[in-house]
Write a structure and sequence with these properties.
CATH architecture of the largest domain: 2-Layer Sandwich
Largest sheet: 5 strands, mixed
Oligomer: single chain
Strand order of the largest sheet: 1-2-3-5-4
Number of helices: 11
Order of helices and strands: HHHHHHHHHEHEEHEE
Number of strands: 5
Helix content: 55-70%
CATH topology of the largest domain: Heat Shock Protein 90
Amino acid sequence: MPLVLRLIAERTTWKRWSYLVVGGALLMPYWFLGLVLASIVTNRGALIAVIVLGLPVLGAFVTGLVPTVRALEGTACRELLGGASAGLDPPPAASRESRLRTGAWFSLHLHAGVLIAALSLAVPPFAIALLLFPFADWSMFTDPQSPLHDWKSSSLAWLGPVAGLAMVFVLLALIVLTGDVLSRLAPRFLGPSPTERLAELESEAVRLAERNRLARELHDSVGHALSVVTLQAAAAGRVLGTDPAFAREALGAIEESARSALEDLDHVLGLLREDAAPRTAPQFTLKDVERLLEQTRLAGVELDAEVDAGVELVPAAVSREAYRIVQETLTNALRHAGKVPVRLRIMIRSERLEVEVSNPLGGASAGHHSGGRGLEGIRERATVLRGHMSAGADGGRWRVAVSLPLRSGS
């Protein structure tokens, strides 16, 4: 009895019952249509039965082929069936497979619903009559010759309430069982197909790749700006009293670096917010490399740079990645080696863009170049463009070399 009372009190029981009853109501027009069509087509009992019983099955299935039915049924299952269906949020059916599965589900829903709806209408009145059987006078409704006429005065009369309660319990059990079965089956019929799962995985992979790209952009741009700002601020502090002109120049460079870093940070954070309006990404290329080199020199780094004039004609995709690679290599030199002479070469050789950055390798910094995400980010950028990258000690210097093809087939 406590279990029965708990099932009666649970909202899930009645939400599932309402889902089933709605299905039964939706099936009624198909049955009425079957009755009308059968009366017009034939007067043979067997054929009438086939039309009346078969047309609702076919009609419900065909209706379920409408793409939006899948989305509507998914929402109804999620809100009313719950359980295993709580995570359903299917889009309109787009493939033949998803439409067929939705059609089968819609027909199953409507026919299971009409069974529960019919029992919900028929069982309560009979149960109430049986519960009241020992207490009411039924003689006016029964044939005097019928055994029921004398049952009220016999001990069998008390079987009525027992039978009435049993009917209620059976109906409740059918509602609970049918609702639970449909809740478990709904994901199989309305859930994603293998094709949709593959498309979702591909979409997730694209989103993950974009987030990784944004992380690299943030690491390179903001990391470089902070490294430069740190060195520029230290240099400005040391010469503030002796060389005000240089200090003002360094402070101006700090302002520009900080502003650029804030723009990049605002852009990346804006993209990470799913509800944010589309933003235009900062697209620095090798055309901006002189500005990058000037910032590095203002940080007090002795920079020997050689840049081929033709780098401005490098394809945009390669130019953008090459700019970030140069930025990250200079940041690594600033961060790990300090204010040591840095040599930079950006050259075009045989349809490839060659970038090489090197600096003296001090003992204290020798082990630091191998850590962090800087070299990993450079390698990822080179790999994306089908290039290659090498980094390591070379004759007392730390050398990073990157080779990028200028054409996809190079």
